[in-house]
């Protein structure tokens, strides 16, 4: 069965935040950000909404029609969301310093000299639908647009499993893994250059 993808609207914001928070809940980096599971479940949707709302204003969000998978893209360069520090503190509470460390590490790794590109802030699939091609369908959907416009893409893979998925879709490591001094898998900065004209490489 083919996965159907559509562009999300602002009315989908709460659902998108829930999918992101649920999919990211067991990741090593997320467990480090907010160790308490209940706090993580309560706070992460509010954190995700900061970037989701920013993407509705400036970027692109795609969602599967069954609402079980989402991809949140932001153009780069792009300023931080308005009042970002205040919103981050409200969303993350006592865990804000760890989110600030994550921001600093991601900013340090993010290529600044390779020209405009799209940044994949979140690719999230509900746990029971992972491994069924939903993430690949979302990637292909946006990569088609990027390739038509000769535009590159950047992301941070959250673990070796997602890194394999992104490698299959044309991404390569572009910086050392993020060093945040937690136990578990690091995040891997990855870059995707669009195919040159006449190159039939898969997206």
From TrEMBL:
Residues 50-195 form the N-acetyltransferase domain. It holds the Pfam family Acetyltransf_7. SUPFAM superfamilies: Acyl-CoA N-acyltransferases (Nat) (SSF55729). PANTHER family: GNAT FAMILY ACETYLTRANSFERASE, N-ACETYLTRANSFERASE DOMAIN-CONTAINING PROTEIN. It comes from Rugosimonospora acidiphila. Gene3D superfamilies: 3.40.630.30. This is GNAT family N-acetyltransferase.
């Amino acid at each position: 069965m083919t996965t159907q993808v559509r562009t999300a609207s602002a009315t989908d914001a709460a659902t998108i935040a829930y999918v992101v928070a649920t999919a990211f809940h067991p990741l090593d980096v997320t467990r480090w950000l907010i160790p308490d599971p209940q706090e993580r479940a309560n706070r992460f949707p509010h954190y995700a909404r900061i970037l989701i709302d920013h993407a509705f204003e400036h970027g692109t969000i795609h969602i599967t029609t069954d609402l079980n998978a989402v991809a949140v893209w932001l153009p780069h360069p792009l300023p931080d969301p308005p009042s970002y520090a205040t919103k981050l503190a409200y969303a993350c509470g006592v865990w804000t310093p760890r989110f600030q460390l994550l921001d600093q590490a991601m900013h340090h790794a993010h290529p600044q000299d390779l020209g405009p590109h799209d940044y994949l802030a979140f690719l999230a699939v509900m746990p029971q639908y992972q491994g069924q091609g939903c993430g690949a369908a979302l990637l292909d959907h946006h990569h088609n647009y990027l390739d038509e416009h000769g535009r590159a893409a950047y992301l941070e893979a959250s673990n070796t499993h997602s890194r394999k998925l992104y490698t299959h879709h044309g991404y390569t490591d572009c910086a050392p893994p993020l060093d945040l001094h937690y136990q578990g898998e690091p995040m891997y900065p990855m870059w995707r250059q669009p195919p040159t004209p006449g190159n039939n490489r898969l997206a």
